[in-house]
């Protein structure tokens, strides 16, 4: 009976010890949880404090960096080539001039006071008339001249293919000798008709020149040449 009581007392004391150890471990664990939680909240508070409104943020100007210094140019020393100095060669040259100079030669004196200046002759520019007393005309007559044009003008192939027709106005000058010159197309129809009209007029014989006050003069003329396209039946 005494042994059983001692065992119960021993177990009771051990139970109290284990309970105390368990309580101590539990308290330590709880204290540790409180400390970890307060540290985490403190960290969150610190982060929340940094999150300020956008309009209160300070703009930090960018740092200007100085440009790097330019690389140093290394000057290359030029290669100096020594050129030997040529020795001067002295030669004795005998110059033999055989000129007779006499003091009796007359020197022409120019009298600038009585000098007469002559003006160059101006070239007489022949006037070109458009209206004259006697009009120029073909020596063969105007009807024969028109027949000459009709027989010698060749309708250009390009104009035939495009069925181009119309009047070509050619300006030319009948010179005082009757020759025709200075051909110019004032109004054309193209497709080779302008060039063909000028070609035939250049091949024409000289005309009888126009006259003003009985004197042959240059006269400017304009001649229309009509190109008509007709299909053959």
TrEMBL record:
GO annotation, cellular component aspect: outer membrane-bounded periplasmic space; plasma membrane protein complex
Primary location group: membrane
Record InterPro entries: TonB (IPR003538), TonB-dependent_transducer (IPR051045), TonB/TolA_C (IPR006260), TonB_C (IPR037682)
Domain TonB C-terminal span(s) in chain numbering: 140-233
Keyword Transmembrane: yes
Keywords assigned by UniProt, alphabetized: Cell inner membrane, Cell membrane, Membrane, Protein transport, Transmembrane, Transmembrane helix, Transport
Any one GO molecular function term: energy transducer activity
Membrane topology: Single-pass membrane protein
Name of the protein: Energy transducer TonB
